[in-house]
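Input.
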Amino acid sequence: MEKPYSSACERNSEPILEVLKANIISSDRRLLEIGSGTGQHAVYFAPSFPQLEWFPSDLGANLPGIKMWLKEAKIPNLQQPVSLDVGKDDFPKLKFDVVYSANTLHIMHWKDCKSFMKTLGHRLREGSRAIIYGPFKYNGEFTSASNADFDEELKKRDPLSGIRSFEDVNTNMIKNGFELVHDYEMPANNRTLVYRRLKFVKHK
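Output.
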């Protein structure tokens, strides 16, 4: 098997890393990455946070490729990837201070996006952060012609995928106990949304 490679990961790694550095704090101990893809982001980011156990995750079919990157990189705080299918699987039974995900919401069906946000609400506690990178629509409008074209391509492959509305995402994150603390403009017409978990209230 040839080691997987994403040119997009190569391009966006440094801008995303700057956002992570601004939002991961010294007391954070565990980060769960949802949709690790090739594993490039995990290998690029984890060395900058040596106090943090970095847990990659993805569909089972993608784990062998991630393991190839990890085996080659030999990064001490980078854990073995976990099989996780959003909408079907719960997070690993650990306390996570940060959940990070890049370029996943427009691939997942909206019902799975909502399941993901609900799980974040159940599993993260006060002060924990959810960091979500990717393209979004604002007020029903694409932020660029290229994003509109990308959305059309996504829907041709899977009619239930597509670029998500910031307002829909934000409404669901608030509903699940989060507040938006940053909405970063990123290169290539992408954004990074940073949410903080408010005080946990046990539902009756």
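The mean pLDDT is 96.
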